[in-house]
Queue: 2 jobs
Job 1
Amino acid sequence: MKAALRKSYKVVLDVRSKEEFFGTETKKGASRPGRIPGVTWIEWKEVIVEAGPYGGYWKSAEEIRKLFSTEGVTPDKDIYIY
């Protein structure tokens, strides 16, 4: 992870909940609370439609692409997700 964080063509992407990312909640099996410094965080829920007839489904590819690219997560990079 440390090596990946130093490379501009790599992204370490944390998709856990806000509580897990900020360390206010720790899941069973985690060695300690919080995040790895320098990672990119996009909570998994950000790619899901919240309500309405499509609630629970994926957002459109365009919406997801825009969200990820805003955070520097682009197809030209190696992405490590946790």
Note: The helical segments are 2-5, 18-22, 61-70.
Job 2
Amino acid sequence: MMKYFTIGRIEGEWENFVPPIQGGKFELEPEDEGIVIEDSTSEEEDTMDAQVYLRNPPVPHATATSTELPAEFDQYPPLTPEVQHQITLNYRALEERLWKEGYYECYYSRYLPELLRYTSLGLLSYIALKYNWYCISALFLGLMWHQLVFTAHDAGHMGITHDPVMDTTIGIIIADFFGGLSIGWWKKNHNVHHIVTNHPEHDPDIQHMPFFAVSSRLLHSLRSTYYDRVMTYDAFAKIMINVQHWMYYPILCFGRFNLYRLSWEHLLFAKGIPKTGITQRFRYLEILGNMVFWYWFGYLLLYRSLPTAGTRILYVLISHVVTMPLHVQITLSHFSMSTTDFGPTESFPQKMLRTTMDVDCPKWMDFVHGGLQFQAVHHLFPRVPRHRLREVQPLVQEFCRDVGIKHVIFGFVEGNKEVIGRLGDVAKQARMMKDCASWLAVEGKDH
């Protein structure tokens, strides 16, 4: 839709402005009808940037601390406009190649094994329920939910038919009617995640305070631009962050419950949803879908089919905890990666490769990960069908070699170690901050 709003073109490369929430200042000058953007970078910040970026020009408004930048900064190409522009040109050339060679084409036959898998798991859950094998029934239901998410993800990215109405409808049927989750909420959340990946202030996918902090910046009560609220580093957060590397897996066991809350909050309060048009009609369809879900799952299955309250609680826990590996996979590709802001001159492909990693696994295990273990590839080309990501990965690796950007890839076990290590590091910083505050309090009293 952006072409309909074009009023002109600029010469050279566009440099993003700093939004007001980060200190940008915007004043309407009497002599000018346009908006004048004032540089809010202080003299001290300019001096710091000049000292930090020894090999390259300073990055304005960088949000990283001087202790974070040098080691990480040296691992990537210079942030000069010329270098970053060339990276962008190489990226566009690769994208054009993918279109020409048909990598954006979705092979619908690839969904046949998945449909068979979904149907089999659903039938096994139903049969086990009829034989009163409640725990086994819950297990198969959770596995079905786990698998269904992959196709819902494709639909959310318009990666199936490439038609927004068709793919959104498919997503609603899968996510809302069968899963009790809002595909509309997911698309709103996920699109922002793809734009500002791993940015502590802007990316909702790493804003899990008070339970997780993947950056020390989250220990300073940052304001989330997505949720429009301060992520307070309060007493409860201090307790949880201190042990977050121990609580990572237990908390993710209950991740699906949080998704229910976010889905209903999105649908009921309609934040960011237009009041008219197809999006509003989709909202009504989603509300219907969630009501249908809670009718068949909450009433027909839990209330009518299970004998006791204890059995119902056990069924809910098993079916939901089974989906935990999916939440691990989603966080795996980002939690251990960079959260540093390199500034507005950084190119899109470099930012995606710096903040996202791939997970290596044998081809026969793709169905377990749903093909989404290729997150770095997916972030570069979000609408390439999921079943084609393995084919595109070698081309991305070739691109990385040409432009000098590293392509981070870990095995599943090694990736988990990286995440736990990152959470442990931030927890250690939180403890150090607490110890320093205690020391200063004592010293202040003594002096």
Note: The chain has two domains: 116-323, 329-442.
